[in-house]
Amino acid sequence: MIAAWISSIILILFALSVIVIRLKASKSPTSAKKILIPPVGMSTGFLMFVVPETHVPLSYAGLAILAGLLLCAPLVATSRMFVADGKVYLKRSKGFVVVLLVLVVLRIALHQYIEDYVSIPQTAALFFILAFSMLLPWRILMYLNYRRLRATAALPREQVS
Prior knowledge:
The protein has helices at residues 2-25, 32-42, 58-78, 94-114, 120-152, and strands at 80-84, 87-91. With 161 residues, the chain is mainly alpha-helical. It has one domain (2-152). The protein has a two-stranded antiparallel ribbon with strand order 1-2. Helix 1 (2-25) packs antiparallel against helix 4. The longest helix is centred in the last third of the chain and has 33 residues, at 120-152. The mean pLDDT is 86.
C-alpha cells in the first residue's frame, strides 16, 4: 500500500515537471531534434522485455497499444505550432495541461485495478507499452506538422548538429 502511494506521488511530481518543462519549451523555438528525440530515447525502455517477468500476453499488449492510441488523440488535438520570426514554436495550451493531468489520474486509478490481474513487472510493461503507443504517433504527427509549417513558411533547412 505504501509503495502504491510512493509511486503515485512520484508520478504526480513527474507529471508536474513535464508540465513545467513543456510550458518553458513553448518560449523557445522547436526543432526536429526536440520533437523526435523523446520517442527515440523512450524506445530503450523496450529492453525491459529481456527480463521474462515483464512478458505479457499479446492480447494485453494489444489492449495497451489501443489505449495508447486512443489517449494520443487529445495530445494531438491540444498540440499546436506556429511560425514567428522565421522559427517554429509550440503554442501554449491549457488543454495540454488538463489532458496530462487527466492521464495521470487515469493511470493511478487503472494501476490499482490492473495490479489485481498481473504482476508488478507486467504492470510496468503494460503502462510502458501504453505510454509509448501514445507518445510515438503524437510525436510523428508533430514532426509532420513541423515539416509542413517549415515548408509553407519557406524557412531555410535546419542545420543538423
